[in-house]
Amino acid sequence: MDMNGSERIEAPVDAVWKALNDPDILRQCIPGCEKLEKLSDTEMTATVALKVGPVKARFEGAVQLSNLDPPNSYTISGEGKGGMVGFAKGGADVSLAADGLDATILNYTVKADVGGKIAQLGSRLIDSTAKKLAGEFFSTFNKQVSAQLVP
Question: Which of 6, 7, 48, 110 is most exposed, with minimal Cβ within 10 Å?
Fold first, then answer.
């Protein structure tokens, strides 16, 4: 599953970049995220509980930042194992561009894949769930970052 999109964020590029690298902000924005801990500047561990159709799963795994070009772009990727349910892996290429002095356009390309029992739910259900989750993440991220700058 591949998906592209963009968000206009009412914050300068440096503030958006800082938020993209802040585990506390990311934890609040990732749907179902129970835990996100920073291990290094490019590695984190995560626990995420999700419901995909009739299946509830808790995924534990690693998150990696790569292709770092501060404050312009990076790739965030992760892979989680959900026990008997299967696995999920994916990532997003994220780029930032200034839109005037006080706003940023965040562009993203998301790729996701699942395997195991959860993959048997069918690609339409999985694709629609992945698109919904990605949309929720970027929308919530936009609200979080914009709200931080409101006096």
Answer: 6
